[in-house]
Amino acid sequence: MTPPRILAILPLIAALAVSAQQPAQSPAPQQVFGYRDFTQQAKWDAAFMTIPDAKLAGEHLKILTAEPHWASSPEDYKTALYVAAKFKAAGLETSIVPYKVLLNKPKSILVEAFDADGNKLMSGPTPEHVDPTKYGGDPSQDDPRILPAFNGYSPSGDVTAPVVYANYGTLADFKKLASLGVSVKGKIVLVRYGENFRGVKVYIAQQYGAKGVLIYSDPADDGYFRGDAYPKGPFRPASGVQRGSVQFLPIYPGDPETPGIASTPDLPDSQRTKNPVDLSSIPSNPLSYKDAEPILRALDGPETPHGWQGALPFTYHLGGTNTVTVHMDIQEDYALRTIWDVIGKVRGTETGDNWVIAGNHRDAWVYGAVDPSSGTAAMLETVHGIGDLLKQGWKPKRTILFASWDAEEEGLVGSTEWVEQHAAELRHAVAYFNTDVSVSGPDFSAAAVPSLKQFVREATTEVPSPKGGTVYDQWKKAEDATAAEDHEHRSHSENAVPIDNLGSGSDYTPFLQHVGVPSTDIGSDGPYGVYHSTFDDYNWFIKFADPTFVYEQEMARVFGLEVLHMADADVLPYDYHLYGKETLGYLEAAQSHAAKVDLHLDFTAALAAAQRFAAAGTAIRAVQLNPPADTAQLNVALRATEEAFLNPAGLPHRPWYKHLIYDPGEYTGYDAVVIPGVNEAIEANDAPRAQSQLTALTEALNRAADTLESVTK
Fold this sequence. Notes:
Elements: H1 13-17, H2 39-49, H3 54-64, H4 74-89, E1 93-115, E2 120-124, E3 151-152, E4 157-165, H5 171-179, E5 188-192, H6 198-207, E6 212-216, H7 219-222, E7 244-245, E8 284-287, H8 289-298, E9 324-346, E10 351-361, H9 369-391, E11 398-405, H10 408-411, H11 413-421, E12 431-439, E13 443-448, H12 453-460, H13 471-485, H14 508-514, E14 519-525, H15 538-545, H16 550-568, H17 576-596, H18 604-625, H19 632-643, E15 662-664, E16 672-674, H20 676-683, H21 687-709
Parallel strand pairs: 3-7, 4-5, 5-6, 6-8, 10-11, 10-12, 12-14
Antiparallel strand pairs: 1-2, 1-9, 4-9, 9-11, 13-14, 15-16
Helix pairs in contact: 2-9, 2-16, 3-9, 3-16, 4-9, 9-16, 11-14, 12-16, 17-18, 18-21, 19-21, 20-21
């Protein structure tokens, strides 16, 4: 589900030329944060790095993408069996964990458009298809098991109404329409993908009174405007459709009928919520730009505001008149369906209840070569490496869990249900490492909580890049080039590669934002225009993403080093010095924003608490660099600090989200909103709510400072 970072076309000639087996390791660092002495760990790292195999990763990918494997399907279960077999072969204690969850499957989908005289403009959706005689075609596109393109968790509905074009469907876009006198009430809204999560587009449209939503992929965003379309190039062809869930993810993820509790197979119906608040009441469906074009071309009304024009070859208009009417007849089959998580465990020898969890989802809308099978293939080679270390006599200090989640695409369902089932044990989990859209090209990227940003950087300094040097070298080179193009100026203290914050859209969400487990998410990006379409298949992958699977190997190595370092570090390698600095910056920015919008708030206590937390973070780092002989109390305090940021009451309007520093925005979905309770209240011009959220944040920052100070004073 993680949204692809669609980049400008990057030549992959270098990837085609390199050997499928890259050197195992760059020179190991002399010291890594969290270790008294890194010498022995460097040896285990070196042994591990020789094991992940590019060719085997390619074989995993080919098998995993052989059939469409939508969550709960027989083909999906076959992938669970495959992953479980690989876990067992590596020596992991393995179980397949079922959940019974509400999922919809399309029965029939019709979208048709008419002009003012009743003439039919289009009738679809048109099946995804590229010319099989050009550029090799696509060998997988005609499999009868491919489901029609649909939106997960759209309700059924039969609606007819005039059309309004609403750009990306952001809150700002809907406000702009209102300011222009264009109402969407009683209309069908046509929006393009991008800028926010598709479920948020429907969430806002519903609030503004729309009758239905159609979401299409404009060629400006991931089609021919960006480069050659598939199969000639990597971008979306005219018939390509981005499927996806429209669950109101910023309200809560997981099984809509069981917020906060696990939907185990024996859960009685009496504990299910029959009117979930995270589901839409209006139907929606995705479209290709081939099907959206005749609708957009026929719209009249005002020309669109600056920036709303896409790349189709005519001027876009807002519509809202009776010139174009659309009929949507969306019929969905809703049922409780069984999904399967696969869990593999390596027991720790010292602090076995301190879990290190590494995961990736396995289900796909169709074949899912990039999303998610590139991540599963990389994870399986990480597991291969861990298994070989076990045979060599290595045993981790902390327990390691590898997880293959199901039904992530519908709304992070498999991971959320598992987290809700194991919430008590997860209070001791020391990290969750995620990969999802793992390889779509050669450019490494990462997101993390601040305490783990340097941890990710250190792991990448040991792994060789297929492009030469280390992964970190190439990552920094690319980031520096981007900063130069954007005319950014970084201070010397900010010379490290910047790492994104965690929003939502993948399986780290329940771990970090519901139960407070420090988390990271890694990937390797490239020009990727077939996200969530039939064409995200093995054929596309070997042509455009990673023909020799060397980036799969790279990702397996980075993922594995994250696991190894967190499992065996003497002191948990959290950087609360950086966390404190970033949090203080968020508060200062919020204070400035409140002043600009003339919202009178008292930041005094919150800023004092942030400064106290920052000072405690600096002090604890000194202790981590020179730890006591017995690190047990220190590690307990370090882990408890992240949990201190949870508010049991959760965020206003969405109590499932409990983290007061990082959550998905109510109106963004994917992107993180920092100190969300405060910032969203300021954005809503709600001073009482903002002040209340400042109080909650102040209490959390003081809890975190208390926790750190308990081992520094």
